[in-house]
Design brief:
heterodimer, A: 421 residues, alpha/beta, D-Maltodextrin-Binding Protein, domain 2, 7-stranded mixed beta sheet, B: mainly alpha, MetI-like fold, two-stranded antiparallel sheet, globular
Chain lengths: 421, 295
């Protein structure tokens, strides 16, 4: 008898708990916001959400942060299960994959209802989310790729710091001087440069553009990474590996991938997201613009953005939240994170961003916009990037020949484009 | 093949009652998702829009998808090396540790330890062993005057990964074989040694035939594990953004389903993998009927 009573009690308390989680006040809504990111980002986002809740007491935002890999799996599962989050984070290159499949809400009516809303934005950050019938997403913050250098290593080797006039040949020459086998055991203890050449964003898209090549045709049907100047860019990148001034992908893996952060590389080309890590590792570094190639100077601009689910039941509240996060107050909070550049010009050019780390030359990230090109956005991006990225690793590990491999990969990459038309 | 006692009357009721949780789990979790996968393999589904009928298109695409073929062949190669490796080494280990030697408990614990350690942690340790620049293995090679080897580069990665997986699995195999070995009556060995049989003759004529039930079981389990192997492999061969130098079938299924918006293709790949396991199991059960000795 006693046990039955206990079971009843348990059931009763469960029912009570279930009732408790229903929205209490009338007219108040709860929206969900999921994003990828580091645990420390949750703290700052919680602050943004709290500020927003103060300004809009009837809207509560539930933030959920996962790491990059689990984020996409989770998102897919939520959408397939018919319970999509109201607002979710989007990586610009993947935007079309989601937009073209009808997962996203057209934000144009909201933008039209808020005249002047887009005025303060860097225009380069907006293009990724624009389609024929308007915007289906908004950039939240963005990245330009610049050249980071370790001042201590440059000083020790007596090499002068990189400048905006450097060419890729200057980069290679300096990298050679900065590649050092300190204890003469035949193993390199300090590399001239480290970068990731799996994804295009860190080095190879910049190099291809600077050498006069391109990534993909404007109608997204043809992979161009093997044509014209692009081949010269690949030859240059391959030479960084062949000369031994850049660790091979497999060697990088051994040292936790980012050798600049582990104080083993004198330079790297990367975005602002790496700054907190480098500061945390007490690296004495500064930044310079990307080098010039035969066809001029180029870098990549890419953004993380917000999108709203097409099936969101609280789309109005969701847009209010996006609007707040993109306001000066929201953007200033996000600038505190130090992971990215605010999309609002007024915030990026204010002390909130420029003075966040004292001596670091934050202006370089902003000045790079002048010659930046948007990281390509096309359908089938991830599969395409996988084919190219996975396929080139044996080349850079010294196990395959560059040109033959490129030819093979381009054919396979074009197939992906055809399948995603 | 009737074993043990038969449940009677009221016992039967309890039997089913006790089995209910497992049956529900099996019905919805395993059989349900298997049927769903089978169904989805005939559809195109991006997880966002409703699935659309694709017929056998996804299966035809399997034979044109170079990446999947590579992953599938990797799984086959891996299994061909891994299964015999695990079975033979853990059997030999069990025979060695079935003797009355000092500290046998310590040895058994040591060999069983990888089984209970997290795959991520052990993969990190193996990364330190295999490292091209900093690895212990290359340090030993160089000390002996050999050239260092890039253990985890594309050309050697398969072998390196198989070694780690075998190392991680022999503990479990050893337990199975130890149980099988202790079930063999001592009399057989005593009688045969009176007749003048040596250790080798005893192993091949007595131990091996009588341990065949364990060999059967262990081969089956190893094969299933081999077809599903993923964690050690990915942790050892990942290079940056979701890429692996030894992509296996499970990895291809995951990538297609959750990153490439191709749930239908992923389902077809999963079904093909399941069929392969089924065929292998059918062969194993045929082998069991003809060669496995139950006392």
């Amino acid at each position: 008898m006693k046990s039955k009573l206990f079971v009843l009690l348990v059931i009763a308390s469960l029912m009570l708990a279930a009732c408790g989680s229903k929205p209490a006040a009338q007219g108040s809504v709860e929206i969900t916001f999921t994003m990828w990111g580091a645990p420390e980002e949750l703290t700052v986002w919680q602050a943004v959400v709290d500020d927003f809740h103060k300004a809009n007491p009837n809207i509560t935002v539930k933030v959920d942060v996962s790491d990059w890999d689990s984020y996409w799996t989770k998102l897919n599962t939520l959408i397939a299960g018919g319970t999509p989050p109201d607002v979710f984070a989007m990586d610009a290159p993947l935007f079309l994959d989601w937009q073209s499949r009808g997962a996203l809400l057209n934000l144009q009516p909201y933008i039209d209802a808020n005249p002047g809303f887009l005025d303060g934005f860097y225009p380069q950050t907006l293009t990724a989310y624009k389609t024929a019938d308007g915007y289906y997403g908004m950039p939240r913050d963005f990245q330009t790729i610049v050249l980071f250098y370790n001042k201590d290593m440059f000083d020790a080797a007596g090499v002068s710091y990189p400048t905006g006039d450097w060419t890729y040949d200057d980069l290679l020459a300096a990298a050679k001087k900065l590649t050092i086998d300190k204890d003469k055991d035949g193993k390199i203890d300090q590399y001239g440069i480290w970068s990731d050449t799996w994804d295009m964003e860190l080095l190879w898209s910049e190099a291809i553009w600077s050498y006069g090549g391109d990534i993909i045709s404007s109608d997204h049907t043809k992979t161009l990474i093997g044509e014209g100047g692009a081949r010269d860019a690949w030859k240059f990148i391959d030479s960084l590996y062949k000369e031994g001034v850049m660790p091979t992908p497999t060697t990088s893996g051994e040292f936790g991938f980012d050798l600049f952060q582990s104080n083993m590389a004198a330079m790297t080309s990367i975005g602002h997201w790496a700054v907190p890590g480098y500061v945390g590792a007490k690296i004495n570094f500064d930044v310079a613009p990307m080098p010039k190639g035969p066809a001029g100077q180029a870098t990549s601009v890419n953004s993380a953005g917000f999108v709203i689910s097409k099936d969101s039941k609280n789309a109005d509240a969701a847009f209010e939240f996006i609007k707040f996060a993109l306001s000066e107050a929201g953007q200033k909070r996000l600038a505190e994170l130090g992971f990215a550049i605010p999309v609002l010009k007024s915030v990026a050019e204010s002390d909130a961003y420029l003075k966040q780390l004292g001596t670091l030359n934050q202006q370089v990230f902003l000045d790079s916009i002048a010659f930046a090109r948007t990281k390509p956005v096309f359908k089938g991006y991830e599969e395409w990037a996988g084919i190219v990225g996975d396929g080139l690793i044996p080349v850079f590990d010294g196990e395959a020949e560059l040109n033959a491999t490129l030819d093979e990969l381009i054919a396979a990459a074009d197939k992906v484009l055809a399948a995603n038309k | 093949m009737d074993y043990g006692l038969k449940p009677l009357g009221r016992e039967k009721l309890w039997l089913w009652l006790m089995l209910v949780p497992t049956i529900i789990g099996l019905a919805f979790g395993t059989i349900g998702s298997l049927l769903a996968t089978l169904g989805l393999s005939f559809f195109d589904w991006d997880l966002i829009n409703p699935p659309t009928w694709a017929g056998t298109e996804n299966y035809a695409a399997l034979f044109e998808n170079k990446n999947y073929i590579e992953a599938f062949m990797n799984t086959l190669k891996f299994s061909a090396l891994y299964v015999p490796g695990v079975v033979i080494i853990s059997l030999l280990l069990a025979v060695l540790l079935n003797r009355k030697i000092r500290g046998v408990g310590i040895f058994r614990t040591i060999y069983f330890l990888p089984t209970v350690t997290s795959a991520v942690a052990t993969a990190l340790v193996w990364n330190m062993i295999y490292g091209k620049e900093t690895g212990i293995l290359n340090f030993m090679l160089e000390t002996l005057g050999f050239a260092p080897i890039c253990w985890l580069c594309t050309n050697n990665a398969m072998m390196s990964v198989v070694i780690v997986n075998i190392w991680g699995a022999i503990g479990e195999g050893m337990i199975i074989f130890l149980a099988g070995l202790t079930a063999i009556p001592r009399d057989y060995y005593e009688a045969s040694s009176l007749d003048g049989a040596n250790d080798f003759q005893q192993f091949f004529r007595i131990t091996l035939p009588l341990v065949t039930p364990s060999i059967f079981f262990q081969t089956l389990m190893s094969a299933i594990n081999a077809f599903q192997a993923y964690d050690y492999i990915y942790m050892l061969t990942r290079r940056g953004q979701g890429d692996s130098s030894v992509p296996v079938a499970v990895y291809s299924i995951y990538r297609n389903a959750f990153h490439f918006f191709r749930m239908g293709d992923a389902s077809a790949q999963a079904i093909q993998l399941a069929l392969l396991v089924a065929v292998f199991m059918a062969i194993m059960f045929w082998w069991e009927r003809n060669y496995v000795v139950y006392e």
